[in-house]
Design a protein that fits this description.
Length: 581
């Protein structure tokens, strides 16, 4: 591979300005892939203390509110009962305070689950959405439909609310410290606290530490890969919203495009965004994508593996029939009106201001655009999630006085208001782009140089965080590493998958085991096998097409490779190979 040590030397010289440090700095240049030796494997241990752990692990600023011995059984997350081994549950909060800005009480709430039979590893479970909830600390391993968890695999797992209660909704954004805690500071505070708990519980700290999450949790992971590289050996980022403030503004942009073609109004007299595109109309688009792109990977199987090739093959203007003027009212899913095509084309092209400057990434057209999760994010979330997040958390100063909900989304000015996500003032000294996104996202030098590894996955039909953005990020990581970062960081697109799960996809996979094998055994993941959750499976995905076997398998391939059909049973991963696209 081609190396670019001069680039790194130049950055180091500029940063350090001292010739004596240049030798050490030069070692930060990327090593050839073969030189990435695995880190020593974690050694198992046994829980030595639970009941008196609060006293043993006392730390200033940390309050343990409950310590509970939990027998082997199940822990319910949402409405799914997950198997859990015998463990010690520690609940508490850090840095409790009253905000001098909004006078509200804040703390970083957390729980930690420490298994009796420990695998020697720590897992930070980063949660989704606006945080605010201490989701049970089981540790997601990637994809949809739980089968196992990090806790079940023997990890000590922490989960937290990132510094604010969910009852506040987005209003925690009125407090500048709560913004920072949500963005990155809760992770920075909790990580050493968790490692101390582990040391007191097992008699030694974790041998290896991992960080994982999807959506906003994937964002946390991308941030941790840069800000907390010294604390973690492996990072797993799913559908990462690493440009979350931009994506949220793009959601408002989308709402404005849908409103322009909405055919119905809500009871409140507002445009009903759901009426902009009926499910039959989005199914039409999905079918036309499949017509043009499904076979590009060697098999028409309802999965578009070659997203890049599809980009050149699918043009909504020519691929989808245009309804004759006046005929759109019948809307039976046979055509789209010209204004509908323009609205969809603009959304997929990526949010822009009036000068045509991009605000957020493009999105790839994919077969998963007919999914229920796609509709939820595109048509419901702008008013319910994104308007509040942009108004209270991402705008400086906050736009708290405006009408909220859909009126906020439709009234948001892409020229005047969007720059607020990059703004600071005397109260809010860090912009949303600063506290929410990884600083120098493509600079993974610290993680790379300590022997760490990173796996990223992203559904190509994710409606809110674009896999195009993640692909572009990975291209930058490649460029920063002499054209090949695969020795320590790999990105696995998941064809058809919506936001973190769902869609017409093989969306069940174990990325955590792949990451551990890579970090500790040096087994780089050449592919990761994914399974569909069809009818009759334990947690079925209703959008698995009827023509698929219920447990169809496919290899997920490291970008830019794609899964190509090589012959044999079309329902089995073994009939496909990861090849350069
Ligand atoms: Ca295909």
């Amino acid at each position: 591979m081609t190396r670019q040590p001069h680039l790194h030397l130049g950055l180091c010289a500029a940063a350090l300005g001292a010739a004596g440090l240049l030798a050490a700095c030069a070692s930060r240049a990327p090593a050839p892939n073969a030189a990435h030796a695995p880190l020593a494997a974690a050694r198992p241990g046994t829980l030595q203390a639970c009941a008196d752990l609060a006293a043993r692990a006392a730390l200033p600023g940390t309050v343990y509110t409950a310590v509970t011995e939990v027998p082997a059984g199940t822990v319910t997350v949402g409405n799914v009962a997950m198997a859990a081994p015998a463990h010690c549950l520690v609940q508490g909060r850090m840095n409790e305070r009253t905000s001098p800005v909004d006078q509200q009480r804040y703390a970083i709430g957390f729980e930690m689950r420490l298994p009796v039979a420990w695998n020697g590893r720590f897992f930070y479970q980063a949660n989704g959405g606006l945080d605010g909830v201490v989701v049970p600390a089981l540790g997601g391993i990637g994809g949809g439909g739980p089968r196992s968890s990090a806790l079940q695999m023997g990890f000590a797992v922490i989960s937290a609310d990132a510094g604010h209660p969910g009852s506040m909704g987005p209003r925690f954004g009125l407090d500048p410290q709560a913004r920072l805690d949500y963005g990155y500071n809760a992770v920075a505070q909790l990580t050493p606290m968790a490692k101390n708990l582990i040391a007191k519980a097992y008699g030694r700290g974790p041998d290896r530490s991992y960080f994982g999450g999807c959506s906003n949790g994937g964002r946390h992971a991308m941030v941790a890969a840069v800000r907390s590289a010294q604390q973690y050996d492996g990072v797993l980022a799913g559908d990462p919203g690493f440009n979350l403030p931009k994506a949220a503004v793009a959601q408002l942009y989308g709402a404005q495009q849908y409103a322009a073609v909405a055919s119905a109004k809500t009871p409140a007299g507002q445009p009903d965004l759901q009426s902009a595109f009926t499910p039959a109309e989005m199914k039409l688009v999905a079918n036309k994508v499949l017509e043009r792109c499904d076979a590009l990977d060697g098999l028409a199987d309802g999965i578009v593996s070659n997203v890049q090739a599809c980009r050149a093959k699918f043009d909504i203007q020519t691929a989808v029939p245009t309804c004759a003027a006046g005929a759109a009212a019948t809307r039976d899913g046979m055509c789209l009106s010209a204004p509908q095509k323009k609205a969809l084309a603009d959304v997929f092209k990526g949010a822009r201001n009036s000068a045509g400057q991009p605000i957020y990434s493009s999105f790839p057209f994919d077969a998963g655009v007919s999914g229920a999760n796609w509709r939820e994010w595109k048509f419901a979330s702008p008013a319910t999630r994104d308007a509040g997040a942009v108004a209270f958390i991402f705008s400086t100063p906050p736009l708290a006085d405006r009408p909220q909900g859909l009126p906020f989304a439709l009234g948001f000015d892409m020229d005047r208001d969007a720059p607020r996500i990059a703004a600071t003032d005397g109260v809010f000294r860090e912009s949303a782009l600063s506290f929410m996104t990884p600083p120098a996202a493509a600079d993974l030098g610290a993680l790379r140089d300590k022997g760490g590894r990173m796996i990223v996955y992203h559904g190509t039909s994710d409606p809110v965080f674009s896999s195009d953005d993640t692909a572009a990020w990975y291209e930058r990581v490649q460029a920063a590493n002499g054209g090949d970062a695969s020795g320590f960081a790999r990105y696995f697109p998941v064809p058809g998958m919506n936001h973190c799960a769902g869609g017409p996809a093989t969306d069940q996979f174990d990325m955590l085991s792949a990451l551990v094998d890579w970090v500790e055994q040096g087994k780089a993941p050449a592919s990761v096998t994914a399974t569909a959750r069809g009818a009759g499976t334990p947690v079925p995905n209703a959008e698995v097409p009827a023509g698929w076997s219920a447990q169809r398998t496919r290899p997920l391939c490291p970008y830019p490779q794609v899964a190509v059909y090589t012959g044999g049973d079309t329902e089995r991963a073994s009939s496909f190979a990861c090849k350069a696209s």
